[in-house]
Amino acid sequence: MARNTSFLEHLREQLIPHQPLKDVSKKFLAELKRNLQKSERSMLASGLVPSWQSITGANKPGARILAIDFGGSTLKFALVYMPKCEILFQDRFDIVTKVVDQKFFDVLLSWISLKLNEYFASNGTRVTKLPVSVTFSFPLNERDEIITMGKGFDMAPEIQGRSVKDLIRSSFDRILQTLPSPHFGVEMCDVINDAVAVYLASKFMYKNQSISLILGTGVNSCFELPLELMPLTKKPMKNAPNCNCLVNVEAGFLGAKFINISPFDDHDDGERFMPLDDLTSGKLLPMALDNIAKEYDIKGLDSRNIDGELFVAIADGRYSGTLDSDNLELACEISRMLIRRGAFYVVAMLLAVGSLVNGGSDTVIEVGYVGSFLANCLYYQEQISIFAGNDIRFQFLHDSNLLGAAVATYLNKFTEQE
């Protein structure tokens, strides 16, 4: 037991943040401001959103929209009726292949097309042009081209420099021609980031959310700024009265110069290009636990099986595997150390984003969030709540990646503004 106490104390010294929360938040804020001006991979302009007060209560037509969510490990789709945000039909599909090429899109969209065609056929319905809106959970530039792939995916050279919207459109064109009796056609509309989708769903449904948070396979956030605060190089080209600009933080890129990255956070990815992901996400915290278990010879943890689900079960005291009581106690405390550190940096980042949104005022930050890692880990939620205190309020959003995609297309295509 003395060995365990000494080892845990040594580990705690390596993991504990080096500065107080407010100081780290100020560093995040300074980085956010710099990235807004100059970065090509963080603080990305991600479309316009109308002033919420300018959307009229009248003239809101009903519309069915096909929403697709390309997530880290699962493809989801739903037929959403707007403006009620009502899901009429939905399904999901585990993504097995990790090479993103044209075939990747063909396979997944073939599955969607078959399922959706069966749904329309069973209802005796034919739709000439079904609006399609996509949430794509990887960084995109202003031309909808993939900037980088994370979460275990590799981008094939054949799709570099091609827009995701064009890739999906061309897949649908081929696939719908092969259906023996197609009951629908498609009209490609919007491709948005998952943080943007969560923000739009949150704002449309709850009105008062000012920031979105993704904390699942990776970490990200989104908010909106008045157009006059956007730098010229990131300001949308078209004239847009009564609109704000959505800003996709791409938060995983933040913190390289000041967050406390330990040797256990090295995941053989060549370089730590997404440091905040390393310390907070459901994909990488289990890897850190595995690295620590190997370094300190903690028996019973099989690196092949340490994933987000197992990590959460250990941290929340719900583990039912083969670890003996002493090693389980060790693994639980290590998992919780990693979570406490992650929660610290997540809150520091959110406080920085909130300061930017609220102009430095002490207004309570309203956060709409999604992500199975945070949603399923009670200890993570507790630690974030402790660090956030009364400065942040959280609202969990079911199906927001799908609903947010539908909201984007509804606002752009169907909603009249004053």
Question: What descriptive keywords fit this protein?
Answer:
six-stranded mixed beta sheet; alpha/beta; 12 helices; single chain; globular; five-stranded mixed beta sheet; 21% strand; 418 residues
Structure description:
The chain is of the alpha/beta class. Helices cover 41% and strands 21% of the residues. It has helices spanning 2-15, 21-38, 102-122, 164-178, 194-206, 275-280, 285-295, 308-315, 325-357, 372-376, 378-388, 400-414; strands spanning 44-50, 63-70, 74-82, 86-94, 99-100, 127-136, 154-155, 184-193, 211-215, 219-226, 243-248, 365-370, 392-396. The strands form three sheets. A six-stranded mixed sheet has the order 1-11-10-9-12-13. Helix 3 (102-122) packs across helix 4 and helix 8 packs across helix 9. It is globular. The relative contact order is 0.18.
What percent of residues adopt helix (DSSP H or I)?
Answer: 40-55%
Largest sheet, described in full? 6 strands, mixed
Number of helices: 12
Taking all residues together, what is the mean pLDDT?
A: 87
Sheet-strand content, in percent, reads 15-25%
The gyration radius over C-alpha positions equals 22 Å
User: What is the general shape?
Assistant: globular
How are helices and strands ordered from N to C?
A: HHEEEEEHEEHEHEEEHHHHEHHEH
What's the β-strand tally?
A: 13
* Structural class label: alpha/beta
> Strand sequence of the main sheet, in spatial order?
1-11-10-9-12-13
Q: N-to-C terminal Cα separation, in Å?
A: 69 Å
Low-confidence stretches: none
